[in-house]
Design a protein that fits this description.
Elements lengths: L11 H6 L8 H14 L5 H12 L2 H4 L2 E8 L2 E8 L2 E13 L3 E11 L36 H4 L2 E10 L7 H13 L12 E8 L5 E9 L6 H15 L4 H22 L11 E13 L8 E11 L6 E4 L2 E4 L13 H21 L1 H22 L9 H14 L7 H14 L1
Parallel strand pairs: 1-6
Antiparallel strand pairs: 1-2, 2-3, 3-4, 4-5, 5-7, 6-7, 8-9, 10-11
Helix pairs in contact: 2-3, 2-6, 7-9, 8-10, 8-12, 9-10, 9-11, 10-11
């Protein structure tokens, strides 16, 4: 259900936002989010875009201002107050450059008179002083978050996404970050999502807004695409098949999606290796518990996965449609789209590496994806699919998999197939 407004008494969205970095502006942000979603579904697209630009002018009143407070080397240090907590942060080394966002490594320091802090500490542990970092990664720390002596100078590694240029349509900026913040504070999703610290705006001395950005937690180990490339490099040096590792990865991600879909009809809608972060854990037997209890099984797991980039995501919150519908106006829930997109882009982007190091997995997953690639090749005519730039191929694949539904890629169906695999090895 689409809603342009609602009463605030029992408003689930407002209640969740009050637990996030948007707490100080929960009600206006909730209202803005709902109105922005509706603009995507205006029958007159031009009118919807005009409405979106008018709404975007309100964004700056809801986002905290970050002001320059000095420099560290060539990097500018900014200070911002969010939910009564003062943060200092900077961004330095650029990770990626896109048409909408530039992504950087950075650090953040929290300064607050209170012993309890929100949004800037992972797992209840404070990050160490930057003097103790090694090659840009913080050394381990065992200082509890409740220590008021350390609360004033704790430093944490973060990722900073900065808008590439001013934009009069800020729907994606608002919606993807609000979705990130809300999901990270939902019981069913918080272990699947990279947390967001806060959005911010930066003003010049003449008060003209020139930049918008967001500070995100850095899990510290990169995305799954980088992991595949590193595993391939090790394979080239030492050999050894990685089929079981890839089957375990797919099983974990299918189980996450099955749980998220069952709880809130969650769809990422742009799920690919580069949008999944990973963290190593001690290998254990992870239990998969889908809706059907007879389908429960176990598999060995040595990694935890986290979703990022929610610029196309959607979910249901107490019957309300919360989404960034920037590429589609359809409200239809497609449970197969995320695994379809993940597997197709995995074959597309990392097929050579997978064919070398996990040949059985690659042959199997490429076979499942082939009907979708056939449709992509047909849709690309008269230009051949392979001659399209990678970004264009991804966009075409994403459009197709959001419309198609191959039953194998529904997470519950995929888990049934993977159960047979794990029972056979």
């Amino acid at each position: 259900m689409l809603r342009a407004s609602t009463g605030h008494g029992n408003d689930s969205l407002v209640q969740l936002l009050r637990k996030t970095c948007y707490a100080d502006a929960a009600e206006p942000i909730a209202s803005l989010v709902r109105k922005m979603i509706v603009t995507y579904h205006n029958a007159d697209m031009d009118e919807g875009d005009r409405q979106a630009k008018a709404l975007s002018a309100q964004v700056f009143d809801c986002i905290a201002s970050a002001r320059q407070r000095g420099t560290v080397g060539l990097a500018q240090v900014y200070e911002v107050v969010v939910n009564s907590c003062t943060y200092r942060f900077l961004w330095q080394r650029r990770l990626a450059r896109g048409c909408y966002n530039h992504v950087y490594y950075g650090t953040i320091t929290a300064r607050t008179p209170h012993a309890t802090r929100a949004h800037n500490v992972a797992d209840g542990m404070l990050a160490p002083d930057p003097q103790s970092t090694v090659r840009g990664k913080p050394a381990s720390s065992s200082t509890p978050a409740s220590d008021p002596q350390r609360a004033s100078d704790s430093v944490e590694m973060v990722v900073v996404k900065v808008t590439a240029q001013p934009d009069s349509d800020l729907r994606v900026y608002v919606l993807e970050n609000v979705i990130n913040a809300v999901l990270a504070n939902m019981d069913v999703m918080r272990d699947m999502v990279v947390p967001i610290h806060f959005p911010f705006k930066v003003a010049q001395s003449n008060r003209q807004i020139v930049r918008l950005g967001v500070v995100l937690q850095d899990p510290g180990h990169g995305h799954v695409g980088e992991l595949i490339e590193r595993m391939h490099q090790k394979h080239a040096k030492a050999g050894g098949a990685r089929d079981r590792v890839m089957f375990a990865m797919l099983t974990a991600l299918a189980a996450m999606l099955e749980q998220a879909q069952r709880a809130i009809q969650f769809q990422h809608r742009d799920l690919k290796c580069d949008n999944i972060m990973w963290v190593p854990v001690n290998e254990t037997m992870q239990r998969v518990m889908p809706d059907d209890p007879t389908a429960t099984f176990q598999f060995p797991s040595s990694m935890k996965f986290l979703f990022i980039d929610f610029g196309m995501a959607r979910f249901m919150l107490d019957g309300e449609h919360i989404a960034c519908d920037c590429m589609t106006s359809s409200l239809t829930f497609n449970p197969a789209s995320d695994l379809q997109n993940l597997c197709c882009t995995m074959v597309e982007d990392y097929g050579r590496e997978l064919a070398d190091m996990a040949p059985d997995f690659f042959k199997w997953i490429a076979g499942l994806c082939e009907p979708l690639f056939v449709k992509a090749r047909e849709a690309a005519l008269p230009r051949t699919y392979r001659k399209l730039p990678q970004e264009s191929r991804h966009k075409l694949l994403t459009t197709i998999v959001n419309e198609e539904k191959v039953q194998y890629f529904v997470p519950s169906s995929m888990l049934a197939v993977l159960k047979v695999y794990w029972q056979s090895v």
